[in-house]
Design goal:
4-stranded mixed sheet; 8-stranded antiparallel β-barrel; 2 domains; OmpA-like_sf; membrane; 60s Ribosomal Protein L30, Chain: A; Porin; Autotransporte_beta_dom_sf
């Protein structure tokens, strides 16, 4: 027992050491759907290769963190082997609620996108239903053993692929228990009285499947890592913004031309009319601080938006990223009733541009 607690403590320490801060998920983020199929056979009491039972299933799941998730899976079994025929095309249906644990991310840390290969144990409880007539009369009572509580223990060997790792193929060996199963009572005299894991009331299964991970609110199909900033970085960023404000105050005509179109001659462009939104390197999603700054723009106001990028990366990447930043700001402002006259990306703009979007409020 002492060794068990030691191993558990070591696992928790490893998980904590490899933990990463990921972007907060919205309700419908990190959802996937997939299909699987394979063969199953009774664990005991028959020759495995002579009693193979084909099955097909559907799985829908969600990852709440890069390590932990839940999935609902339902599999239909088509053969009666090694049991007596039920007279139906589908003999058995098993529907389970499964917990999923990504061991690769737990012990290796999440690096911003899935690995090409991952190991994911799955385990949970379910409901099993046998089709056909399965009542048995014993003495003066009728026993109905068409329904029973099930439990699945398995492990997925998963391969992620696609341009954004949005697809995943996996091979899954598993063992499935009938916890209160009495279906063998007549043929094998192996009643499973009560609720227990009994290998004589289980079947082993080998399935292969593929899942598709839907696109998230962060623009990818997986979790994004949020870069943690220490106080020194925050102070430096605030200093950069203040320096930029000072420079704009001293030379409004020269600098504003770089980020917004020339205002009408009768209208003076003031620093107070500009809202600055900062972004993480290589990202275009809005932070809580950015949204707070944009909330100051009142509904009904007309604005022009220019997104910019820092010098890292190619011109093509920076142009695309700056436009994405301008579009994200425009989308948020439109939801608040602000009229967006123009939202453009200008890539890298001089030496004062540092992953920002500038909103000119008219």
């Amino acid at each position: 027992m002492k060794k068990l607690f030691t191993l558990m403590a070591a696992a928790l320490i490893a998980a904590g050491a490899s933990a990463q801060t990921v972007q907060e998920s919205k309700t419908f983020d990190n959802i996937y759907v997939g299909v699987n199929g394979g063969v199953a056979t009774k664990t005991t009491g028959n020759a495995w290769l002579k009693g193979l039972n084909p099955n097909f299933g559907v799985r829908v799941g969600r990852w709440f963190t890069p390590v932990f998730g839940l999935a609902v899976e339902s599999n239909a079994y088509f053969s009666n082997k090694p049991f007596a025929s039920t007279g139906t095309a589908v003999r058995f249906l098993n529907t389970s609620l499964l917990g999923t644990v990504n061991l690769s991310n737990w012990f290796g840390g999440y690096k911003g996108e899935p690995r090409s290969f991952e190991v994911i144990p799955v385990a949970g409880l379910g409901w099993g239903h046998i089709f056909g007539h399965n009542n048995e009369r014993v003495g003066s009572k009728d026993f109905d053993y068409r329904n029973n509580l099930t439990s699945k223990l398995g492990i997925d060997f998963a391969f992620n692929f696609g341009s954004q790792k949005q697809w995943q193929a996996y091979v899954e060996p598993s063992i499935n228990y009938g916890l209160n199963d009495n279906t063998d009572r007549v043929n094998y005299n192996l009643s499973n009285a009560g609720m227990k894991y009994n290998i004589n009331h289980s079947y082993v299964q080998l399935n292969a499947g593929v899942v598709y991970k839907f696109k998230n609110s962060n623009g990818t199909h997986n979790f994004n890592i949020v870069k943690p900033y220490d106080q020194a970085e925050i102070d430096q960023l605030n200093s950069t913004i203040n320096d930029l404000r000072d420079e704009l105050a001293k030379k409004p005509k020269e600098i504003v031309k770089e980020v917004v179109k020339e205002a009408p001659a009768s209208q003076e462009v003031k620093v107070e009319n500009l809202v600055f939104v900062t972004f993480a390197q290589g990202k275009s999603f809005l932070t809580k601080e950015a949204k707070k700054a944009l909330d100051a723009v009142k509904s009904g106001k007309h604005v022009q938006i220019v997104g910019t990028a820092s010098p890292e990366g190619s011109k093509e990447v920076n142009d695309r990223l700056s436009q994405a930043r301008a579009d994200e700001v425009a989308k948020y402002l439109k939801k608040n009733g602000v009229v967006v006259d123009e939202a453009i990306g200008k890539g890298v703009q001089g030496t004062t541009s540092n992953r920002i979007a500038v909103v000119y409020v008219k």
